[in-house]
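Anyone opening a protein record will find just a pair of labelled lines. A complete record is shown below as an example:
=====
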Amino acid sequence: MDEEVNPDHENVNSVLAQDSIELFHILSSQSHSVIMELCQMMPSEAWHQYQVDPSSSSATARPELIKTMLDYFRSASARKCRNFLQRVCFSCENIPMLLESRLMSVAGYDSNSYENSSPAVTDQNSSPPFLEQRLVKRPRIDHWQQYISEVEKCLLKRWKQLTAGLVREVQLENVWVSPRAANRSRDRPDQTPSSADRGGRTPEPDGDYGYLESRVTLETFLQGCLGKVTVLVGKTGSGKTLLTSCLGQQWASGLGPVPSSFVFVLLEFRQLNLLSRPLSLSELLFQYYLPPTGGEDAKRAIIDYLLTNPEQSCWVLDGYDEFHSKLSKKEVQRKPLHLEDPLPVADLISGLLNRQILPGSTVLVTCRVRDLIDLDGISDKVGQLLGWDQDEIKEYVDNFFGAKDVALREQAAQLLLSSRHLLAMSSIPALCNICCICLEHLLLQWRDKATGGAPMPDEKGSKARTDAQEAEGAQMSREARGEEGNRRGNPAQRKQEDGKRKGSKDVIMDGTNGRPQLAPTSPQVPATLTQVYLTVLGSFLSRDPNHGGDGRPKTKRFPHSAVTTLTILSQYQSELCELSRLAWTGLEESKILFLKEEIPQEVLKFSLRIGLLSQVELRRQDGILASAYCFIHLTVQEFLAALRIMTSNDVNDAQLKKRFSLKTRWTSKSDQKTVFTDSLYLYVCGLASSQCTPALVELAKVSGSVQSWVQKRQDLVLKLLKTMCNSNTLTGPKILQLCHSVQESQNHQLAKQVFGVRPKLELRNIWLLPNDIEALAFVVNSADQNDIGLDFGACSMELECLIVLARCQGIHNLSFHSRKYGDKFAEKLSSVLPKFTSLRKLEFSGASLTATGAASLASGLQGCPHITEINLSDNNLRDEGISYIAEIFTKLQNLSNVVLGRNSTTLNAVDCLIKTMSSCLNIQHVHADGIKDLTVTFFQKSDMNSLLNQNWNKSEMQKLAESLARCPALSVLDLSGGQWDEEILRKLTEFLPQFSITEKIIINDSCSSVEGLVVLTALLSDYPPVMELHIRYTHASNLTFASFSLSYCNLHPADLESVLRCLGTSSDLTMLDLSSNCLGNKGLKKLLDFLPRLCKIQEINASNNDINMEGVVMLAGALCSYNTLTEIHISGGGKEEVSLKFCPDESDDKQQLKMFRYIKDSSILPSDMTKVCRKLVQSRFHWELELSQCIHANSITSAANALKLVSCLTDSQRVTSVELSPQSDSFINFDAVKVEQVSCRLTHFCLKGDHLKKLLEILQQGPQLSDLDLSSNQLEDEDVSSFVHSLPRLKISTYVNLSNNRLTQQGLLAVANTLCTCANVSGVEVSLGEEEQCFIWFRQSETREKSLRVREGSLKREHLVRLAEIVSSCPHLTKVEFPAAAELQSKWIGVIRTFLLSIEERWIGAEKAVGLMCRCLQLNSNIQTVSIHQNTLHLIKSTELTTDSLVDCAVNGYQLASIESVIPSCPFLTELDFSHNILGVEGAEFLCSVLPRMPNLTSLSLSGHQISETAAQNMTTLLPCLRSLNLSHCVLPGGLQLIEALGQCVILEDLCLDSVLLNEESRMCLARALRNINSICRLRLNEIVTAMDNFSVLDLLAATKGHTHLKEIELGGWRMACRGIEELNRLIPTWTELRKIKLSKNLISDQSGEKLLEALKDCSHLEELCLSDNTLGNLTAARMALIFPSLTHLSPFCSFFNSVTSKRLSKTHFLTSVGTSELCAVVASLAHCPLIQEVGLGWNNCRDEVALEVARVLPFCHTLTQIDLECNSLSVSGAEALLKALRFCPALQLIRLWKNKIFEGDVHRLALRDRRMNFSST
């Protein structure tokens, strides 16, 4: 600091001369009036002398005026000069305080010294205005300087108190900081003062170091902090508070980065927490920091000066992490605050940081790393305190133990460096002091034991050392905050910077864990951090000189040889109990400071005596000083709180679970603010270890807890930890914390589970310490598997971490990704690589590796013989580095893949790898991309090279070709991306005969001209091994077998002639691609003329060649002329797709189908189509003409033209189908011979009136129709009536589709009437809802039964009456189904003559359902069956009522009363079904009570009810008479009684106990009963237990032995494994009548499934099979295809979800999630199931071939209503095949295609074409 100038010692003129430059800058910023006022102090003759006009106001003249004025007064008299300087000080603004003080000192104070040299001043009696300012300003400066002096004394006194007894001197130049990039808001103005504002000091430029690895001293870091907000972060105990006091001491001494002219304000947030009321800035400064001595005047003067000169203040805010409030993150308003108004403390601090208060002031904030996020957008500079390195730790240990006991000091240093936990703790100064106390205790204890209890060292010396240590501990304990930080800088920088630190040097490590080895006689250091803290606790307790915990007086400290830590803890149980309670209370209340009254006095004295608590002074709200106490470190408080959790039942399990959570190292803005270090759960895990149990039991005795309680609490912790181990959602930092927790628990079983759910651990952007790696090693080494992967991405770590990492056994995959990892890192890694004996894959990509590092890694990799994959991509290896890696290829025989891309390589690197192939024969594939990649793949033989995007010249091509010629045989050579000219290609073709290429050469994007194309084409004739050539200018050029592609080559007809000529005798071509050229019709003609020479051709693609209708006619003629040409596909009139397909092997087959497909041409004329057809009719083959999307005004959009095409049915007997529609594809298919049946579909026309009449005439004259589709033709009721009137004269065998023809109820009645008027009509199905449907089905067999189904008919009374007449007049009508009708008329029900009637009504249910059933019986006595299921009524005609059913109708028990009166009128009732209602216990009892009144009852179903003991008693009397009993889903309190009674049911044929939970006794009873029921035919025992042992399974299966009449058996959900299936396989051959077997939800493997199917082979009557939810696979599916043909009654479709049916039945069938996608053979068998209704093939990963097979069999399944293909691998091709087949299945209502590989656009398109294609999940 510059010293002030005394006017007596220095001339005023010389001062002005020295400071004139700075004064010039200050005066230049003043207003014009101030300059004019100063100019008036010069006489006018002086201005004339300098030839300057003082009245000039121009900006250009202003600098000259100021310079002239300064020059004049510099040589003027001392009096004039003083007057000038006084005027400057009192008139000018923003003069730096130091300069102003200097000028005022030499200018003097005497007002009479003023000399008026200005002629403008005339009043000699009045004082000048600036003198009045002087009287105010000068005292203000005096108060300011006086206050600064007082602050200096205060800070020096504070520093003296803090540093008393410090072990190590504190110096800012010896403290290391890592600068971090500050996150400043964009809109925040730069408040950095200018050089003038700083009193002439030019600050150091800010360094945005960006990475945490860079480091500087704290002294250097603070340079340039003036006028900025600087944040200093560090861990708890890292010395932040001490350093802020040191900074204040340096300021007070005139040193450091803060000028002494500034006021230095040091505030602690722990003090600010006590200020609850609003304060003004003056109150905060003078009441709670330092009051001035000058009273209120001084306060006002100081505040006034501070507000005027805010840049001359420095505010140090220490310990933001302890602040209870959190800075608001809302957008801060930049307007200044009113400082005279009281504000909350948080607002004052926020205003200071956001420049709303004292803008331009210097602010320094200290906090922990995780609190830095609160200061985002506020801070200008951020630095992180680095922990001590080993040299600093050793220096501290030496200072701690002193020079008196050298042996003890050396042993302590060696012991500390050998312990990873102690070493990690000691990087923090406060914890280093604690570690030293612990080491002293351990060493003295060990020494006393070794010497047999020799006397302690001199008590006085020991006491002196202890006092010093306690002072240090008390000091460091003030840093009870912070959690994160990092120890040192980047390993790559460490060596360069070591010279900057005194005595810094690398510590050489040895041993298995990289630490110095100790003699075997050294004391044992605790294995975990928790045990270390237990020892620390014992160490502090052993320092108590007065008494033990039992109150017995002690004359000296514990003799170390006589006691252990457990003994010490046991003697202080009560004190530790109180301390742990205090710690836990503080933790719960987020409090680290405790007032005196909050701590028991005895405990307080004891804690202060042994050093566990330290004292601090705080000023209360009223300004009175008070004592507060805190633990010496936050981790000590957390450890004691953990002791409380584990030893006191005051902390319940819920509180423990709340506190037990892993903490991430990544800070989030949403994190709850806390002062603690989040180490509590670590200590809790450590205390859960069995090693800590004895200590916990001792301490728990005080709380009344016993050993069992302690162990229970430990088990709970381990259970919580196990849950975390099994979680697969943890991030990298949390997994690392989990490893620490598991290590603390020392539980190897938990460690195994960590990698059980995550074989690869990814760590990203974490600063890793050696103790982190050690925790990781503990977990890795406990795992059983050897395929563990570790992936380090952008993780900072010291080189020592790699030494620890080498302790990890079983590492399979090791990855490093970051630019932080360079050659030194690779060198250290290479030294430990051979220790990874299980290493298979090494990745060192995206790093800073050069050739030097590559050489190191290559050396280390030679010690890894089992490695298979190496990835060194995205480094800077260059060619030299690649050569180092290539050298090890021959030494690592297990290599399979090496990735070397993006390494700044040239052709030399590629050439090096190719040369390596000649010596390393196991290289399979070299893939080089000049821009992206360089990969080497290994195998047993050389296979493939890919050298992409290499822009070689002719000489380089020759060099490459020579290397390739020496290579062993290659299957593929890829040279794409070269863009070579003709000469380079010619050079390549010259060497081609020397290459050993077995498959192909790929040169995509390498042929750049037609000349080059000709060079390559010549290979087909010049070099016979070349069998295929694909050339595209823009995409591809491949040389392979039997194929020639010249797409996108701009070929014209003349060029094509040259190319064809170059082909010469290459007649073996199978594929020729000429697409996207300019051939036109002339080129097409040349191509067709060349066809005879291509005798083996299979496909020609001539698309996009500007071919028009002339070419189309040529193609039609070619289809007839060339026998081998079988298909021609044309779209867009020939301008788009033109594709020709050939079948050379079937050239003489006249039965061969030929297809001419012409689509997507809106301009085709009838005359053009006539030309095409005239060519096609000349064909003697079976052919098919397809016209799709060919729309023209005179084409088939009109009904008249459509009818002309339909007339071909009468003209030609070879037509197999006619499909015409103006909105979709149109087809006319022909056969080579006469056909028996024709399919006719005319849709989306307007077939009204005459058009319909004409159509009917054609159809009556035409052949037999298999089906007729007239949907969507606007027929309406009148035309439909005309059609059905003519229906008897039409020859139709399957169905007629009249859907979507705008029918009303009248049309419905007309269609329904066909049941009476047309004898061969077997069924009518009509729906008038949103999806209008109308089908007329024709009889397929000899049966005469008919059915009528009306859905959504909206029928009114008159319609119902007419419908009843139709129904009554149809003698063979056996089934009628109706939707909701207006009302059920008694007359309507009475006249029914049908066998079966179904009516659906929404109101049917509950009490109305009961009433409806009774009403039906009263109206019609000839009803055999009355069944109401949900809201549908089913009536069956007969003479007597035999079945009464109310199923799932929500009937309550009290609603059954009316049934009691009906029962007597039904003496022949044989079946009663009241399943799935809500009868309740009373309703079930009532129902069972009336059972005895039904003497003929043989079938009873009460599913879903609770059968009480009373109801069971009533039922037992009836059971012997029953033939069928269904109690599925029942709750049976009296179950055992019922099961026992089953043994008397000797005539029982059907038994269902599905989902009836049976215990062991009930199952045994059931087995006994089954042995007695030999008549059983149907047995359903699905889900009868939640878990069943093998004995129960085998016992129940054995009970079915001898049941030769068994037809159906269901054993789903038994979880049967191999033994059960084996027993079942032995029984199945005895069930000769078996028709259905259900074994879903068992444990049937693929092998067991095969044996089961073999056993079922002899069940010739088998109709249904269900094996869903088993683990079947391809083996079982293959066996199905072999076994099913022999089962003639079984539908070849096998159900794995519900059931399978025979050909005679119509049921639901699923093949869902069977474990195999090979289902084509099974699906093909559906063609033999014409009555199948539903098919499920979901969740099988089926591909398009299954969909194609389904599409093929659909025409055979006329009754199919639903297909489920969800969650498969169908593409749009498979979906389109299904869409095309939909027209053959009019009854099909839905195809589920959710979750297939179909793009969204195709989904929308397909769904619009047919709404039955469902792509949603519902």
